[in-house]
Amino acid sequence: MTDVLLAHPFFLKNDPKQIEKMRPYPPLGTLFAAAWLREAGYSVALFDAMLATGEEELAAALEVHRPRFLVLYEDSFNFLNKMCLEHARLAAGRMSRMARAAGATVLAAGSDVSDHPRPYFEAGVQYGLTGEADHTLRELLDTLSGRLAQPVEAVAGLALPDPEAPEGIRRTAERSFERQPDVFPLPAWDLVDVERYRAAWTEAHGSFSVNMVTTRGCPFHCNWCAKPIWGRRYAMRSAAKVAEEMALIKQLLRPDHVWFSDDIFGLQPKWVADFAREVEERDARIPFTIQTRADLMTDVAVAGLARAGCVEAWLGAESGSQKILDAMDKGIQVEETVAATLRLREAGIRACWFLQFGYPGETFEDILATLRLVRETLPDDVGVSVSYPLPGTRFHEMVAAELGTKTHWADSNDLAMMFQGTYQTELYRKVRQVVHRDLDLRHRLRRGDSGNGFQAELGALAEEWMELGRLEATCRSAAPTHVTRTGGPLEAPDLSKPFN
Predict the structure, then answer these.
(1) What backbone torsions phi and psi does residue 7 show, to the nearest 5 degrees?
(2) pLDDT for the residue numbered 59
(3) CB-based contacts of 419, cutoff 8 Å, min separation 6
(4) What's the pLDDT tens digit per position in 405-423?
(5) How far is CA 448 from CA 434, 437, 441, in A?
(6) How far is it, in rounded angstroms, from Cα 247 to Cα 278?
(7) pLDDT for 240-259, tens place per residue?
(8) From CA 20, how far away is CA 411, in angstroms rounded?
(9) CATH number belonging to domain 207-422
(10) Are 75 and 28 in contact (CB under 8 A)?
(11) Residues facing residue 46 across a β-bridge
């Protein structure tokens, strides 16, 4: 009998976009939790839903391990879990019921549980762990197993079902954040079926990628960005500890590539330079990809990234309209995105952009300004989304009155407007198609790859542009959401310390 079976509810098979991309990563946050529990003396097993064929694999794991506790521990380092996708919530409910039927006590932790514990309790979850859950999980298990003589209510960071409490939810005291993440042991990679991931990656891409993380949280204040776990807090691991883990991964897992899943990588240019030195000293260099901000891509940071092995950086460009960036409280200038892109390109690092359309007040001219910026700067790739009002964000508060019955995307490819934007969903889906096709053809032209069929593809693109123009007239919302900005620009965060 195993003390704890850790699991997560993100089945790749339930998300068409992620199946098409086929870039599966193990649940890093769950692996940190597993190592943390083992350090405390608990026997731990893992059910990894990512590449599972279905929930019958969980049934088999429950039968083999007969756990006292099933912990649905969401990977909070994976941006997909911030989106609280419907398919993951429904899977969590089914997994909870299966575990309860098998006699296990069920706990759940993650973004959706922190925001909306009720559906989980209705599905049989008995304890919800809110916010950063590592310490909460260990203390709760110590309490439930009798190691610690205290009532459950003494454990900070919990949501509990209580019909007598407002909305049927009782919350214990808020849990403070861990400011020294080096206290946590390295992820329990031995619990992962690494070869299953290697096979999936190699078949789809001819190479194998694994995930790492250097920070917890993000201190910036983009008003649409959900921070259900860490808020605007951040804590940085030491450069030496991250390089140590990278060397271990290089030796044990032999990946071709690493994805650093930090919300923002490289909050301090000096840290990046130190990281490059530590990587070189340990011969730990592996090609890697990051997500970051244009204003952090200084000469020092970019030089350090190149030395450490960075091959691709995704910038939160969002819009080519300064008006929209300011409305988002993004805290960057359009020119900074262009400068960072050129600086990365000169260092031999692919510069890619995240773009967001549909923010309240965005006009067709603003959309065209973004498309022009893409054409003029030619980022190496783009990811396109629409403004998505996630619970707990200031943006959600601004548009809450306009939200309809749909509060979650079904999957990550949904791209549905959940409030009345300037235009309806159909136009934004067309924008996504146009920007990807336009960028692809321009890159091909730049490479001199304009052989057979290129003219026909240009003609098809022209038709796409014509269709976009027609949709501009037919997809206008009758009463678009209007938000009023109060106050001036927000103060930039203080990044002089390793945590806040």
Answers:
(1) -150, 170
(2) 97
(3) 360, 389, 399, 402, 403, 404, 481
(4) 656 555 556 677 888 899 9
(5) 21, 17, 10
(6) 10
(7) 999 999 999 999 999 999 99
(8) 12
(9) 3.20.20.70
(10) yes
(11) 6
Helix (H, G, I), strand (E, B) or coil at 117: coil
Dihedral (Cα; 112, 115, 117, 120), 10-degree rounding: -20
Question: Token pair of 270, please?
Answer: 């000096």
Q: What is the DSSP string of 439-473?
A: HHHHHHHHHT---TTHHHHHHHHHHHHHHHHHHHH
Q: Give pLDDT, residue 159.
A: 98
DSSP 292-319: E-GGG--HHHHHHHHHHTEEEEEEEEE-
Please tell me whether residue 479 adopts helix, strand or coil conformation: coil
Contact 224, 390 (CB under 8 A): yes
Strands in 105-109's sheet, in edge-to-edge order, are: 44-47, 4-7, 69-73, 105-109, 127-129, 158-161, 169-171
Place of tokens 């919302």: 477
Specify the domain boundaries for CATH 3.20.20.70 within the chain.
207-422
Which of 40, 32, 26 has the alpha carbon at shortest distance from 216? Answer: 32
User: Position of tokens 């099933």?
Assistant: 70
* Comma-separated ranges of CATH 3.40.50.280 domains in the chain: 4-171
Pair type for strands 69-73 and 4-7:
parallel
Q: Which CATH class is domain 4-171?
A: alpha beta
Q: Which residues contact 380 (CB under 8 A, 6 or more apart)?
A: 312, 345, 350, 351, 352, 443
Q: Is the dihedral of CA 131, 132, 135, 137 positive or negative?
A: positive
Could you tell me the end-to-end alpha-carbon distance of the chain, in angstroms, rounded to an integer? 41
d(CA 427, CA 195) in angstroms, rounded, equals 42
